[in-house]
Write a structure and sequence with these properties.
The chain is mainly alpha-helical. The protein is 75% helix and 3% strand. A hairpin with a 5-residue loop joins strand 1 and strand 2.
């Protein structure tokens, strides 16, 4: 792995996981020492993070980690509903039924993962990631898939903010299972409706459980 890729991956994960909080100044010298690479790869990594919207130039302060406001979250979910609803409908029309039948079966067993400790919950998130990847592959539209991947970077940050209690995760697993089931059945309208319902409930949960500006400044 190139030094700039290493620096990018490390910084990106630290931002997404909130180890680098909004407003944190990312000085090239400090980050190059922390990551064990020279300043040039760090500069390249910061440029990529700027392009993704995870960092921004802040005048004389240099590069800082961007914040996520409730308004930002509303806008993300507006776009998410448009993109993911369409993607689910296309996947129902174009996808391989057997792939989504298996995902549906796996998602029905997700509560077994959710009831356990954090490593097991990571397995649940990985399962949701498999559903995302299967939809991306099924839609056969590289532009739509790329747009969704770009948005997911920010959605992971939002998910880390929300208090993902077992009750919400179990409900989300059932919602994901319904999406997979509708796609497996080849029912485009139902797949889109199931996606819209899941996103509506996810947004309500996120907004009910946190206020980014209050929790992550200071």
């Amino acid at each position: 792995m190139r030094a700039s890729d290493k620096a990018y991956a490390a910084l990106r994960e630290d931002i997404i996981e909130w180890r680098l909080a909004p407003g944190t100044v990312l000085a090239e010298v400090e980050q190059s020492e922390r990551l064990g690479v020279s300043r040039t790869p760090v500069r390249e990594a910061l440029s990529r993070l700027n392009a993704e919207g995870l960092t921004t130039a802040a005048g004389g302060r240099g590069v800082v980690v961007t914040d996520i406001s409730l308004e930002d979250i509303d806008e993300m979910f507006e776009l998410r509903e448009t993109l993911e609803g369409k993607a689910a409908a296309l996947a129902a029309e174009r996808g391989e039924r057997v792939v989504f039948e298996q995902l549906h079966a796996d998602l029905l067993r997700a509560p077994e993962l959710i009831s356990q400790d954090d490593p097991a919950r990571h397995a649940y998130y990985a399962l949701v990631g498999r559903l995302d990847e299967a939809i991306d592959a099924a839609i056969s539209n590289s532009y739509l898939a790329q747009a969704m991947r770009s948005l997911r970077v920010h959605l992971v940050r939002v998910r880390r903010l929300a208090a993902d209690d077992a009750q919400r995760l179990n409900a989300a697993a059932a919602e994901h299972a319904a999406i997979a089931e509708a796609i497996a059945a080849g029912n485009a309208k139902l797949a889109e409706a199931a996606t819209t319902l899941h996103l509506h409930r996810s947004l309500s949960h996120v907004k009910a459980t946190h206020s980014p500006n209050e929790e992550h400044h200071g």
